[in-house]
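Student: Please help interpret what follows.
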Amino acid sequence: MAYFIQNSTIEEILNRLFMCLNAFICIIYIYLYIYLTIYKNIVYNYLILYLMKGDLMEETREERFKRLATKRTNEIINKIRILGNTSNRSMYEFSELDVDKIFNHIQEELKKNKTRFKFTNKKSNFKL
């Protein structure tokens, strides 16, 4: 390195220095671009969650119930439709007993969960 500096003009030294600086700046730019590309999505998602949190905080209990109940009811209906696709006898083999088991179990779960929504004023007393 010392030999290069001793036998070079100031102009050559400056040119080499600028070339190194340009390469260094390019490397920094590439790293910064990659960093921002990767973390942009993460930061964006946190920003969306933060903004949504403010909206959800202002949501009443009734509005939250309606939003979640609608979403979950539609998901259940879609799953039932998908279950209905297995009724194709040319593709699947099943008995009447199998069908009864499936729908009896679904009806039991519906009945259990429906009772959870009923309003009762009765207070149950403990008895032995």
Notes: The helical segments are 2-6, 10-58, 61-84, 96-117. The longest helix spans residues 10-58. The CA atoms of residues 10 and 16 lie 10 Å apart. The two ends are 97 Å apart (CA to CA).
